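Review session, final week

We close the course with one last complete record, chosen because it touches almost every idea we covered. It is Protein transport protein SEC23, a protein from Anaeramoeba flamelloides with 795 residues. Go through it on your own first, then we will talk.
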Amino acid sequence: MNFIQKEDLNGIRWTWNIFPNSKQEESRLIIPLGCLYSPKKEIPTCPELPYQPINCRSCGCILNPFCSVDFNGKSWSCPFCYQRNQFPQSYYGISEQSLPAELIEKFTTVEYLLPPPQQQQQNRIPNAPVFLFLLDLHCPQEELDAMKDAIVQSFAFLPPQAKVCLVTLGTALQIYDLSFTSCPKSFILRGTREYTFEKIQDLLQLRTNISQTQSGDKPAGIHKFFRPISECEFLVSEILEDLKQDPWGNKKGIRPQRCVGTGLQLAIMLMARYFGILKLNLGKIEKEEDLLKIKSIGGIGGRIITFLTGPCTKGKGQVVDREFDNPIRSHHDLLKGTAKYTKESFSFYDNLGKIAHQIGITVDLFGCSFDQVGCYEMRTLISKTGGELLITDKFNSDIFLNSFLYLFKNKKKIQQQQQQEQEEEQVILETGFNAFIEVNTTSELQILGLIGNAEKSKKTGKAKINEKFSVGIGKTNRWKINTLDPRKNFAFYFSVINDEKTPIQPKKIGLVQFKTISYDSDGKIRVRVTTSGHLFGDFASNAGMLKQSFDQETAAVIVSRLAVERTKTEKTGSVLRWLDKSLIQVCKKFAYFDKSGISSFQLSPYFSYYPQFMYHLRRSHFLNIFGDSPDETTYFSHSLYNENVSNSILMFQPILQSYSMNGPPSPVLLNMGSIQKDNVLLLDTFFLVLIHRGKQIKNWIKQGYHEMEEYKDFASFLELPKQEAQVIMSNRFPYPRFIECDQGSSPARFLLSRLNPSSSSNNQFSEENQNSGLTDDVSFQVFMNHLKKVVCDKN
């Protein structure tokens, strides 16, 4: 089976491509039954249908190729609930030779593109995306200039009708009036004071209703802060150009007074008022009923893009004291329970996340600092709203600029004007807004949950969910993601309902349907429907069929997300023991070995890479947190929850490519022996792309051979890994860190830390052993030998 080709057609990959026929058989598989799905993945062959989808009147599932059709009776039977449904009159012309796209066998994924809702056409809900920029002024002027330049560059990618708002935070908060063009005008609020929604409306004069705003010559109320970019681009650029460092933040020996929590709270209140919400309680939400009282907007939502250079030191959401003598919390502090502000600030930001999620607001965070910025406490605020997270050293870098501009990736469409012959170019962002993912299954399967950057929504239809046991975000079949782009990926977990006494008959098909509804930046509704069907199998009588259906890459990612999710409630050591135990069980189940011992141990080719993935997962940033801060661990986990199979594998098992003058580029093992004096290595760890030159290559460069005409082939050879690195980095979020280094140099440690610490030479003075570093990690060979010994042990 070519799993990658199937992913290209549907954006989905399963751990097991043949389903077990009972829950007992499923438990014997050890590895969960699950899939990774990218609901907005670009699929060139996916048909775009300009009409409403046809739903089953009983369960709500959508017409798909697995439906049985009665062409004479003009009806179809739903494969999920077996309900018979009549076709609408527009389908009466269908036949076996003339089928609509949604019934054609190869189109298991289709998209319906529908016009904007009537409320949006009447301007009762937003008809353009909204972007609120929240800038931290407690930073060096060079960093602030880089931040401002990036924002100005982003304006070129926005649709002309997009609304923008500008707020700065520091010791105080400043909200800029973008309707006042004579000179920069702003409202200033104290960052240490708590504000209610009603108080903010009074202070900022937001009581003006929409009709009064539209009738006047000048925008009033909330609309003076949110203006179309086509009208205010020059004014905003002028305001940004004049921005300076916070004048109250330069005292020596103490951290600046940074009111991040109050700033985010204010930004959410401004967004809520813009979306027409007149009453909003920002207090602690204890029950789901309290959350449902908050109005959820329909149509296009908005983003709060936050730029931070340090942690919150005052007011709500405080993470650390202002005195430098009191360092910001570490993993050790969290483990011992001595992190002074973490529990309270996490509760505050989590509450904000629930409110923002319910309204339809996304919160993104770009934290650029050599210290932590407090994203560990803000993790659920970002993940629940579907936001992006970047942690790096400084704003004045390619990492920040390219990652930030990725948010505004767009596609341009040429539209023919109805009353004029001229054409108009329309800018549409690749991001979908206010997206919902709904999952339905046939009666043999039930939904356990989702692991990803999303939040649960109210259950719909007759979907079977496990009420007693859930994985990740469970006990529902519907999730909301406030912003959804093509790279975002979600892990879904399922289980079989049938008991071993009543197993599912072989060759019966189990179906799972994913329905994703989102709003494009032009207001149109996009509905993607993916229907995935797989046979149930009797694995007891056909073990070969079982092994061939196993996708070991997907399984490694599904298990890695499960392991990271468990670290939220369990100690890392406990998670590692669970991981080791499950690996041993997998090997006992699927490896061949006899009484002769470990020499007879042999894994099927379909499972041969799985132990290697687990070895590298144990050594990765996700489970080996030594040397990482809580902010870094949050950043790595957030990225893992967003990426597809290939990119997720890269995060814990990098790719190493070797370039030599003696042959074409080739992949090599992640081993110390791969470092040679006459080769160039290209390492891709997803977050880092590194070029490593051997000693001989380094000496040739030092002697200037690459600049000589007679050695132009050598110069071309040196460019090959650089060109490949640029291709790798060009379409990746977050933009990777790029390093060029020589053998034996300090930056080479980034390569050595990711290589298998093994040596095939017994000579301690050999070049291979000189490449290796001191480490407590066992080599992969030692790891495998121990695994084989444990598996083959009779006890």
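Two points worth writing down before the exam:
The longest strand covers residues 525-537.
Residues 210-215, 416-421, 760-766 have pLDDT under 50 and may be disordered.
Good luck, everyone.
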